Known about the structure:
The complex is a heterodimer of chains A (160) and B (555).
Chain A: H1 3-28, H2 49-55, E1 63-68, E2 71-79, E3 82-84, E4 87-90, E5 94-102, E6 107-110, E7 117-120, E8 126-132, E9 136-141, E10 154-159
Parallel strand pairs in A: 2-5, 4-10
Antiparallel strand pairs in A: 1-2, 2-3, 5-8, 6-7, 9-10
Chain B: E1 3-4, H1 17-48, H2 63-95, H3 101-123, H4 141-171, H5 179-194, H6 196-210, H7 219-230, H8 232-247, H9 249-252, E2 257-259, H10 260-272, H11 289-301, H12 304-323, H13 341-363, H14 369-372, H15 377-406, H16 413-439, H17 459-490, E3 503-506, H18 520-541
Parallel strand pairs in B: 2-3
Antiparallel strand pairs in B: 1-3
Helix pairs in contact in B: 1-2, 1-3, 1-17, 2-3, 2-4, 2-5, 2-8, 2-15, 3-4, 4-5, 4-6, 5-8, 5-10, 5-18, 6-7, 8-15, 10-12, 13-15, 13-16, 15-16, 15-17, 16-17
Amino acid sequence: MEVYEKIFASVAAAILVLFLGALAYGALVLKINLPGHGEVISPGPGENLAVAVLKTPPFNTPGVKQVSPGKYEAAIMAQAWSFMPAEMDIPAGSELTFKVTSVDVTHGFFIPGTTVNMMVIPGHVSLETYRFEKPGTYLLLCHEYCGMLHHTMVGKVVVK
Amino acid sequence: MSTPVVYGANRPFDLPSAQRRIIAWTIYVGFFALAVGVANGLAQALNYAHVDIFKYYPGMRTYYQGLTVHGVFNAVVLTFSFANGFVQLTMARGLNRPCNDFLLRAGFAALVIGAVLAAYAMFAGKASVLYTFYPPLMAHWSFYLGLALIVISTWLTSANLFAMLSAWRREHPGERIPLLAYISVVTYIFWDISSLGIAVEVVLLLLPWSLGWLSGAAPLLSRTLFWLTGHPIVYFWLLPVYISWYAMVPKQVDGALFSDAVVRLVFLMFLCIIPIGFHHQFVDPGVSRGLKFAVAVLTFTVFMPSLLTAFSVMYALEIGGRRRGGKGLLSWIFKLPWGNPSVSAQVLAMLAFMLGGITGLMNASYNMNLTIHNTAFVPGHFHLTVGTAVALSYMGIAYWLVPFLEQKELWGRRLGVFQAWCYFIGVLLLARGLISGGLAGMPRRTAISLVPYQEPAGWRIAGMLVGVGGTLMFIGAALFFLVLFMTVLFGRRKEVRDIPFTETIQPPQSRGWQVTMDRLSYWVAFSFVLIAVVYGPFLVSHLPPRLVAQPFQAF
């Protein structure tokens, strides 16, 4: 390789390493992380997935629960074409942990303007926590195609 | 001392005319698919601007049916047809020997039958499962069988390339593989390995499931197998275009390729780093964070060969621009033969690819993916890459390839130049719209005109840009088809003896480290080891498959 090629390749590699460093900083210091490995829901032999989900806590009682002061947990079932529950109300400044699973196909779980962005895959529980500082109504969207009326699959988080 | 990138450069290229016809038809199948894909694309772009025309399309019942056709025809049928036709031709020219007749024909037959089966399922409304066909959305079995046959056509094409290469090597023991043949065959070896994920998914899981032989689907395992192929597939779209950028465009601009070794290195890097599909699953449950970060690093690594390409190809263009009288730091750019539609289309495609590459790096950026995953940002990115860097380059290549295959003069050169600019400006507006929409939370794969809620700020203007840009792209593509059609049917007879190919200023060395680059089995072995390291633990922990999901067909 000639000298210019070597210089270009070195600079290019250095920039990529710098970018990766920024991502690692975001993950380790700022704690902005991706959803990781979650729980699994396995139906018994001959059992329908939806039945298995309804028997598995916390999805046997879907909805928002306070777990400690300022901390809430929402158990949500995604199905074509709605979220159950479709509305979650929490006070401003509180931290909400979403536990989401699907009873049928793969769905998405996305709240624009936040870092809540997950795939919801049948047989798996998706997990994400976010602190809602600003009051307002946050749109919740299914952002993975899930059939004919996919675009109608919405919900909201109301922060008061 | 410069060296041509082909063997027997001084001898005529003696491709039998029957083989030339099959290659031509392989490529026309691809362009026919592009025409269908683009026709549907217009309806999707306008839908973002709240103009619904898809309901007027014959046979299209839903937005998503049209979107499936758009994705599968453009990203599978077009790309695979073009790659099969073009790379068999470049291999034949690289070694200066004809194709294996049977394999060439068999590959074409598998491609056409596969495309017809998949098209039947999609147009009948039995496969509105989009390009990713995530189970448990269940398509008709003909969709999966069609896709399998299309993949088999690429394997038959590979067999043809291997047959040509081994025959050439027997006749030329100890010689370096000519560069054009080398990059052609590495493209297909790379793809053969990459395609194993989707082959296992379709043949062992989805096809038997759609025939009722399996009790359910394994959604996460299927997604993972899909993306094992689904990321490298984008390089399989790209590498035939790289062949043109490296080996042909320098000649077309009166330049030359600088280094033989760097080009081989670039293709080998793609071959060696296949297992990066997990970066499409950054927000999936069931995949650990450590694996996600490791794959982000690998994805950044595979950005290197594209950066090297930016350097090499731009340098080749600069050599051309200066030989044509260009001076100064940048004014050589204006001396490039912009009046040649083949050149202008491909140079504009390269410019789009810079933006496409950077936005792709953003997608792959681990936690940054949280703000853009599955938003309109993603189609914004890939309309710059596959939608322009690849598709517009195909059009540019066609401007010399079709005259060569038909032995006819290109009709409408100036229209071709106009077409390329129209498409390019269109995609810049479209991508600007989709990217800004995505950053404002607009989801992808969604019939935006039909959403039942108040659209957040920024979506409306984004949607308008998508509508206007998409319309310009549609016009650009339609003009391309006009040029193509007129050339094939009414072009003036003209003998076109050879295809354009460049020379390298630094020739391949016949001793030293460079020779190991031609020992392809070493690199293939390395590639498999890396795949086993990245995917092995995940796949083993998912066996036997948990077939938990019931079929779903409400589409």
